[in-house]
Specification:
Structural class of chain A: mainly alpha
Order of helices and strands of chain B: HHH
Strand content of chain A: under 5%
Number of helices of chain B: 3
CATH superfamily of chain A: Ferritin, core subunit, four-helix bundle
Shape of chain A: elongated
Oligomer: heterodimer
CATH class of chain A: Mainly Alpha
Helix content of chain B: 55-70%
Radius of gyration of chain A: 20 Å
Largest sheet of chain B: none
Number of domains of chain A: 1
CATH architecture of chain A: Up-down Bundle
Radius of gyration of chain B: 15 Å
Structural class of chain B: mainly alpha
Largest sheet of chain A: none
Distance between the termini of chain A: 42 Å
Shape of chain B: elongated
Number of helices of chain A: 9
Chain lengths: 209, 84
């Protein structure tokens, strides 16, 4: 089960509204490499993982991604709070406004709504971990791109924290992949699907002989 | 920064330390040095949580039994009080 804590993982305190910046940050709320995609991906993949370490890591990182989703939502909320119709028009977010007013809706910077087609739960631990490693790097690049267009120190501070977590998660998933392959037949990791095929782990293979 | 922000920052710092070390323990559950650090920081976190909840309201809905009003009415995390 999940229990909500009424706090952010890391503070978001933005003094100056900036709707143009909010628009590009929206990609991390509901875009292809968003925190939402990350969370749904990990929390879906974990059920059929073959090792306890992988179940634990996907559960804990998938949960942390929900905290990041909340932080990104807070950034967008604070960047768009109290805007006038004139400011909305001038910033070029009238296309967003017509559908959502100033509500926070999961979509990409270009307005494409969130879809589960952004992510995969393949039922093969090697395949899924490679997707997870790639997902962390894609999110890291998105944060790098956001930082290129961001000169507000309040926003930069929160975005840099989120960017750093992508790097840490990448390290954790890398260790998960190593733990998994260490336990498989090193002559051919791909001879079996460790989530589906029976007896593909080294200890089980010895018992078999 | 308000007193509340300062306390929240202390609390969040210890909470984050514990969280990050626990991610490491997911793949290294027997690492004794890390377990000791988790215990040390968890012990420092607990009184900060208690202090925060006493002063500013409950952090989870389960902590809210004695202060339901505050759970509902105290500012929500995405709200930036100083600006309002």
């Amino acid at each position: 089960m999940f229990v909500y804590e009424k706090k952010l993982q890391y503070p978001v305190n933005i003094k100056n509204p900036n709707p143009k910046l909010a628009k590009i940050i929206m990609s991390q709320f509901g875009g292809a490499d968003s925190e939402l995609a990350a969370s749904v991906r990990y929390l879906s993949q974990r059920y059929t993982m073959p090792l306890p370490e992988l179940k634990a890591t996907l559960t804990d990182i998938g949960t942390e991604e929900l905290s990041h989703l909340e932080m990104v939502g807070a950034i967008i909320y604070q960047l768009t709070k109290g805007l006038t119709e004139k400011e909305i028009k001038a910033a070029g977010i009238d296309d967003y406004f017509v559908d959502h007013t100033l509500g926070i809706y999961p979509s990409s910077a270009a307005g494409v709504p969130f879809t589960a087609a952004y992510l995969q739960s393949k039922g093969d631990a090697i395949t899924d971990l490679h997707e997870d490693l790639a997902a962390e790097q894609k999110a890291r690049t998105t944060y790098d791109n956001i930082l290129r267009f961001c000169d507000d120190p309040d926003v930069k501070d929160s975005i840099r924290f989120l960017r750093q977590r992508e790097v840490v998660h990448y390290q954790r998933f890398g260790e998960n992949l190593r733990i998994l392959t260490d336990k498989l037949d090193e002559k051919n990791f791909y001879a079996f699907n460790p989530e589906f095929d029976k007896k593909c782990f080294k200890n089980q293979m010895k018992k078999n002989k | 920064m308000t007193e509340r922000d300062i306390l929240m920052k202390q609390l969040s710092s210890y909470q984050f330390l514990v969280h990050d070390l626990k991610l490491y323990l997911d793949t290294h559950p027997n690492d004794r040095a890390t377990i000791e650090k988790v215990n040390e920081y968890t012990a420092k976190l607990a009184p900060l949580r208690d202090k925060y909840e006493k002063l500013y309201g409950p952090l989870t809905t389960f902590d809210a039994e004695k202060n339901r009003w505050s759970w509902v009415n105290a500012p929500w995390p995405w709200e930036n009080e100083e600006v309002e």
